[in-house]
Amino acid sequence: MTIQLDEAVIRRAKIAAARRHTSLSGLLAQQITKIADSDERYERAKQEALALMDEAARSGESAPSWTREELYDR
């Protein structure tokens, strides 16, 4: 894989990697892994939420309803 970065960004990234006792390649791998993991968790949660909404819709349950007074009860 090839990426292009500004020299100033590369310099700052090398410093960040050194502070974390890793290489620039290691730092990039860690960050890409975090992004991919986060994306997987989001998609899994989204699918679970959609399945729950679909299940509720098929069961015929109506959405909860509240009065304005109940929502703004002081």
Provide mean pLDDT, rounded: 90
Helix content: over 70%
* Total count of strands: 0
* Main beta sheet strand tally, sense and closure: none
Helix count equals: 3
Structural class: mainly alpha
Low-confidence runs of at least 5 consecutive residues: none
Outline type:
elongated
- Report Rg: 23 Å
Strand content: under 5%
- Give the H and E element order: HHH
Note the gap between the termini: 59 Å
Coiled coil: 28-55
Protein name: CopG family transcriptional regulator
Pfam family, one: DUF6364
Region (Disordered): 55-74
Question: Could you characterize what this model shows?
Answer:
The longest helix is centred in the middle third of the chain and has 36 residues, at 24-59. It contains three helices and no strands. The chain is mainly α and 74 residues long. The protein has a domain at 1-40. The mean pLDDT is 90. It holds the Pfam family DUF6364. Residues 55-74 are annotated as: Disordered. Residues 28-55 form a coiled coil. Keywords: Coiled coil.
